[in-house]
Design a protein that fits this description.
The complex is a heterodimer. By secondary structure, chain A is mainly beta. The longest helix of chain A is centred in the middle third of the chain and has 8 residues. Chain B is 28% helix and 23% strand. Classes of the chains: A mainly beta, B alpha/beta. The complex binds flavin-adenine dinucleotide and zinc ion.
């Protein structure tokens, strides 16, 4: 079981959390200006990297809040967690 | 698998007579099943990934389309991906017309596959029973039964007593979510996963296809016009007129080499087997509601699995609490298995689409084709998917069966939403 560091509550076991998918996918500011291809990218296409992944988590059995994390999808190691609204930390893509 | 020398000898056909002759020779004289060649400089078609789908595509390219200058390139060993890690459930009782056509095409091929390949894939139509535990399940499964029958796919509704009669080891009453009935597809069942990879590899190799193992594709080279020129690999550049990507959990990674973003996320999916016991469970039973399914292998192990892990990952492990949860459900479902010890557990990386239906299609890149998104349930589709993928590559146009399973369906809003159709686990 993974230990996840909620930026609000501290370290808790994985089963207290719910995964929320790729982070930093902002809803388009001007939806009607988007082409169908751009909508597809927003709605369905995902980076799905093998390596560092910025993703959302929700501390569902704790504070109930969403936050972001950078996790290595090869080892499942959490590099860092940070609050929603903060920029993606500058962590080198390939460094393990 | 074994390096070659005797590999150029003609392929031995399997038959009762061959078995007898080799038994008398102490089984020392069975030849190699496929060649292990060095890569050539150029191929008409390169398939990325030697799972059942990739090997099958190569087999059908050679057999049905006469395209034999083909290489299947594999980073590990053939059949070592999800093909060799899955729990082998085969069925075709999917809800939507498009899905029913695709999966039924596959079941029909399963029925004759051992003969076609001259290789025993041990397809066993022992029946797949999907359990209903609540009102929603009952309504949804009955809807499936009706829809399947309209599509010529066998599926029948059993009430609780019928379930008990069909599979006596099941505990139908004294559990948290009692069994109210089930949908049974009698033509569903299992096959031997390794034999499927080996049989397709043998048949493809015999027709001239090169299977290149221990060779990772690291790049896709495109020309000035955007079309593919070949693949960069750990064993050098290999020129190719067409490239078919069949890399399951690694599809996003491979497609990004050509600059194509995919509607996919990769999750670990786990399975486990018990110690082997005498025949005790003669069908396949699945429950999506309590997250467990079970069958017995020919070796006697109970083969058990469930849903994916909660988050995307390329680690072929997964969390232990997921399997524990599955075993809780199995112990309630079949109380006599409570004292069985589990022997092994493992994970595979499955590529999941937003609508839980696969993509077998051309891509925006000329000469690049993709077969992916099979998620947790693509073993059953191996021959059918390989068959229509080969057609798509050979003709540069989809077969009518896979035409709806395009990449553009996400753009155009024609999702094939088996995700919402409840019965989608495997
Ligand atoms: C635990 C588990 C249980 C399952 N149970 C069922 C079931 O009961 N019924 C069912 O129908 N389905 C089931 N599935 C799903 C099924 O296993 C898959 O959908 C199916 O086997 C996919 O076959 P494939 O040939 O596409 O993929 P794979 O067999 O995974 O083949 C893809 C190959 O591509 C190779 N590859 C990847 N990247 C590269 C690269 N860069 N260069 C070269 N090669 C590369 C990989 O090494 C791999 O061998 C299960 C899956 C798992 C993990
Ligand atoms: Zn919290």
């Amino acid at each position: 079981m993974l230990i996840i560091n909620c930026p609000y509550c501290g370290e808790r076991p994985e089963i207290e959390f719910r995964y929320g998918g790729e982070a930093h996918i902002a809803r388009p500011a001007d939806p009607s200006a988007l082409s169908d291809a751009e909508w597809t990218d927003f709605l369905y296409n995902r980076t799905n990297p093998k390596g560092k992944h910025a993703e959302r988590w929700r501390h569902i059995h704790g504070c109930g809040r969403y936050f972001n994390a950078v996790r290595d999808t090869v080892s499942d190691f959490f590099v860092t967690t940070y609050k929603t609204g903060e920029a993606r930390p500058d962590i080198e893509e390939s460094a393990r | 698998m074994r390096p070659d020398a005797a590999a150029e000898a003609p392929l031995q056909k399997f038959s009762g007579f061959a078995l007898l002759r080799n038994a008398l020779g102490g089984h020392q004289n069975w030849g190699h099943q496929w060649r292990n060649p060095a890569p050539k400089d150029e191929y008409d078609v390169v398939i990325v990934g030697a799972g059942g789908h990739g090997l099958g595509a190569a087999y059908y390219l050679a057999k049905e389309h006469g395209i034999t200058n083909v290489a299947v390139i594999e980073r590990g060993w053939l059949g070592g991906g999800n093909t060799g890690r899955n729990t082998t459930i085969i069925r075709s009782n999917y809800l939507f017309d498009e899905s029913a056509a695709l999966y039924e095409h596959s079941v029909k091929l399963w029925e004759g596959l051992s003969q076609d390949l001259n290789y025993n894939v041990m397809y066993s139509a022992r029946g797949v029973l999907m359990l209903a535990h609540n009102h929603h399940d009952v309504a949804s499964f009955k809807r499936h039964v009706h829809s399947n029958r309209l599509n010529g796919v066998d599926n029948e509704w059993l009430d609780a007593d019928g379930v008990k009669a069909f599979c006596p080891p099941l505990n139908i009453k004294s559990m948290r979510y009692p069994i109210l009935g089930g949908a049974l597809q009698r033509r569903g069942g299992t096959a031997r996963h390794d034999a499927v990879a080996w049989g397709f590899a043998r048949g493809a190799s015999d027709r001239g296809v090169d299977i290149i193992q221990n060779c990772e594709v690291t790049g896709i080279r495109r020309g000035a016009n955007g079309a593919v020129e070949g693949v960069e690999t750990s064993r050098g550049f290999i020129r190719a007129k067409k490239i078919g990507v069949s890399a399951a959990g690694h599809t996003s990674v491979v497609m990004s080499m050509a600059g194509v973003r995919m509607p996919l996320e990769s999750y670990p999916l786990q399975a486990l087997v018990s110690e082997p016991v005498k025949p005790a469970f003669d069908s396949v039973v699945m429950s999506n509601t309590i997250h467990a399914y079970i069958s017995q292998s020919d070796k006697g192990e109970m083969v058990i699995g469930a849903g994916t892990d909660a988050y995307t990952s390329y680690s072929q492990r997964g969390g232990l609490h997921i399997t524990t949860h599955t075993l809780d459900a199995i112990c309630e479902l079949v109380p006599q298995f409570r004292r069985l010890r589990m022997l092994r557990n493992w994970g595979g990386i499955v590529d999941v689409t937003p609508d839980r239906s696969p993509i077998i299609a051309k891509t925006p890149v000329p000469g690049l084709y993709v077969n992916c998104g099979w998620g947790t349930g693509g073993f059953k589709a191996t021959p059918g998917s390989a068959n229509v993928f080969a057609h798509t590559i050979a003709k540069d146009a989809p077969h009518p069966i896979n035409a709806p399973f395009s990449l553009e369906r996400f753009r155009d809003g024609f999702l094939i939403d088996e995700a919402a159709a409840a019965a989608v686990a495997h």
